[in-house]
Specification:
Layout (H helix, E strand, L loop, with lengths): L3 E7 L12 E7 L7 E10 L3 H6 L16 E11 L9 E7 L3 E5 L4 E2 L8 H9 L1 H13 L6 E5 L4 H12 L3 E6 L2 H9 L5 E4 L5 H8 L4 E6 L3 H8 L2 E9 L20 H4 L3 E4 L9 H13 L7 E5 L4 H4 L11 E5 L5
Parallel strand pairs: 8-9, 8-11, 9-10, 11-12, 12-13, 14-15
Antiparallel strand pairs: 1-2, 3-4, 3-6, 3-15, 4-5, 5-7
The chain binds NADP nicotinamide-adenine-dinucleotide phosphate.
NADP nicotinamide-adenine-dinucleotide phosphate (NAP) binds next to α4.
Length: about 350
């Protein structure tokens, strides 16, 4: 085991896009766990849009990362030091950690990585741990899909969106995906079983929606917020549901942006609009694991990774999420799995 611990420190809260100098790469000693903590040798680091929220100090669902502290991130790796009775050294775990070679974490916050036959550890962590349950509970609990309904998903070629679309299809919905660019839109219908794809970068969402779903929209799984949300509000059917999963188009603008001008349609169309955070569903994760694993093993659930190699590249790589440069779940390989 080396004695060096490389890590990314939040040096400055980004103003707008993440810029050079907001995160600083440095090295220190390998930490020791305090009582009730473990130290995890990081093998995989997940990069997520929520990282941008944690860098800011806007009101959010978790405390922001403190300036000067290691950047928070979801990690998977092997416990190398334990000061907890419940997690032994050598255990392979996943949970919230830091962008570090060796991350300290409360033992109560990490979970053993379940061994699922036919699903590699990387997929269990990267696709099934939080991404899959986000798509699953958002769609099932809030979207409440019925056979024959029309489901529209934005951010549809991304990690959460691609799973939400395929799940909707498996449940008998007509599915329409919105993504940026030709390549991603080709993947929507070819790989992720969407019935229709809309390229918001070269097409007008409103016009294309009226062409491909003249019947209107029953469920909108929203990953982007902003103008797209406003446009789709006007296409919602009576008693439609909006799953407010994410708002990536406004994360760089330090807030929720302006209220949609179509907000009154929530009343007129009797819409249900509900935000959620996947952590609210922690007690039910096994349900999502089972359902998504079954679809995966039956060949009805495709997913893709966008792989980055080397912790030193995390600071640049996270920015790809906000430029549409990732073509799957963005993940960093930090070290070879033990
Ligand atoms: N509620 C929860 O508990 C929860 C949990 C996990 C994730 N989320 C949310 O789910 C959403 C998707 O997350 P993910 O991890 O699956 O990321 P992802 O979709 O794999 O990557 C982000 C994608 O967002 C799109 N995007 C970026 N800026 C945009 C903009 N200004 N307008 C429209 N699209 C834009 C890009 O795709 P294009 O190339 O298509 O533009 C980009 O590839 C995020 O909003 C995230 O915050 C919520």
């Amino acid at each position: 085991m080396t004695t060096e611990n490389r890590q990314w420190i939040l040096a400055r809260r980004p103003a707008g896009e993440i810029k050079d100098g907001d995160l600083v790469f440095g090295a220190g000693p390998i930490p020791n766990p305090a009582k009730g903590e473990v130290v995890v040798r990081t093998e995989w680091l997940s990069l997520d849009p929520t990282n941008r929220l944690w860098m800011s100090d806007i009101p959010q669902y978790m405390p922001p990362v403190a300036l000067g502290a290691p950047m928070r991130g979801l990690i998977c790796g092997t416990v190398v030091k334990s000061a907890s009775d419940s997690v032994a050294e050598g255990a392979v775990v996943m949970g919230p950690g830091t962008w570090s070679d060796y991350a300290r974490a409360p033992a109560a916050m990490v979970s053993p990585v379940p061994v699922i036959k036919g699903v590699p550890r990387k997929d269990v962590f990267g696709q099934l741990y939080l991404v899959g349950p986000t798509a699953y509970f958002g769609l099932i609990d809030i979207g409440a899909p019925k056979i024959g309904e029309t489901l529209v998903v934005s951010g549809a070629a991304g990690a959460v969106g691609s799973i939400a679309g395929q799940l909707g299809k498996a449940l008998g919905c007509k599915t329409v995906g919105i993504a940026g660019g030709k390549e991603k839109c080709a993947a929507l219908t070819r790989d992720y079983r969407f019935d229709h794809a809309i390229d918001y970068k070269s097409e007008t969402i409103e016009q294309r929606l009226r062409e491909v779903c003249p019947e209107g929209v029953d469920i909108y799984f929203d990953n982007v917020g902003g103008e797209t949300l406003n446009t789709i509000l006007a296409e919602m059917n009576l008693f439609g549901r909006i799953v407010q999963c994410g708002m990536i188009s406004v994360y760089d603008s330090e807030g929720a942006g302006a209220a949609p001008s179509n907000y009154p349609l929530i009343l007129m169309q009797r819409l249900k609009v509900q935000g959620f955070i996947v952590l609210d569903y922690a007690a039910r994760y096994p349900e999502a694991f089972r359902a998504l694993t079954k679809l995966r093993l039956e060949g009805k659930m495709n997913w893709r990774f966008h792989d980055i190699v080397g912790l030193e590249n995390a600071g640049n790589a996270v920015r790809m999420l906000f430029k549409g440069q990732n073509t799957g779940k963005l993940i960093v390989k930090v070290a070879e799995p033990a």
